[in-house]
Amino acid sequence: MRYFVYILQCADGTLYTGSTNDLKKRVREHNSSKRGARYTKTRRPVILKYSETFQTLSRARSREHEIKSWTREKKLNLID
Fold first, then answer.
1. Domain 3-79, what architecture?
2. Cα separation of 54 and 71, whole Å?
3. pTM higher than 0.90 for the full model?
4. pLDDT band at 58 (very low <50, low <70, confident <90, very high)
């Protein structure tokens, strides 16, 4: 199974970082479902700006935690 870490850009310009094993489904949930994160529900629509693939959930979660600790500027540099 593959796991993904992703960065979304919300309608208000903020960034959201998350992880999942089904990237297309998760982005769709962020945009239209009650299963979307609380943060993104009020900031729709969201656009997928970046993703990375991992072989294990633990590596994906570690990377998610790492990226979440970064400044906005560093996240934007990663996206570019």
1. 3-Layer(aba) Sandwich (3.40)
2. 23
3. yes
4. very high
